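Now for a sample.
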Amino acid sequence: MLSDPKKRAAYDSGGFAGVAGYAPEDLFRGVDFGDLFGGLNFDFGFGAGLFDRFFRRPQAGPPRGDNVEVELRVPFERVARGGDEEVRFAHTQVCAACHGSGAKAGTSPRACSGCGGTGEERVTTRKGNVAMQRISTCRVCHGRGELIDNPCPECSGRGQTQREERLTVSIPIGVEEGMALRIAGRGEPSREPAGTAGDLYVVVRTAPDPRFERDGADLWHTEVLAIPDAVLGTTLKVPTLDAPVEVRVAPGTQPGAVLRVRGKGLPHFGVKRRGDLYLRLQVEVPQRLTAAERTLYERLRAQARATQGVVS
């Protein structure tokens, strides 16, 4: 409350617009906020949003219902081509038996005597010319504003029931990892009959695939080479999201080498361009050898040592 009579009259006649010409320091000059809030360390820096910090504005219209978030895992092929996917989620709906009142058919809730039906308890204290009001949830009705003597047997007095719902959503081509698709009005219903329902957010994740790892629009694939193939070179048939492609591995390829196949990754979201496919090459060292294989490797080692001796 404004202590200066002139400022008080300006605010009473025009609200916030009536005191728009005053600086925040003028409006709150002489008010000890440290004493007002019991010495708590609040940031009372003035500037934009001053009244949003100090004044509680009522929400316009009935409250919206809560939003619902559900995760949907889709295969790589769906990311690449787009299309429809079915999502299942638990959905709250107004109880058909009591029509959301929570009271048994033929009865009605009564206003809470503890809060007068507001659902809030208000305690006003004064510090000089400043009045401060503390608002808390009513301890009798727990914020509902009403009491139910005969609860509805179908919903146990909640006014809402749970049911599983199936919904078909359209997955855009190149949908990014973790992208949330918003479906308006398919969230939780409002606590009040006149309120609007919240929204449903479908968070899209890429399902695990033994062939690929995703990195944005790029894909990674691991190929294991036998030692002779790494030494002499070879041609690999590599899977892609379309048809397999042949990739040439050069002689002398080292373990951990990475090859790139251009344009064989996922589409970029909203852009007519595709990422790349990266091949991570691992060289397999045999753990068990046949007698013939051991003989060949021993000959190879002896020849390598002899060659090293000549070079040195």
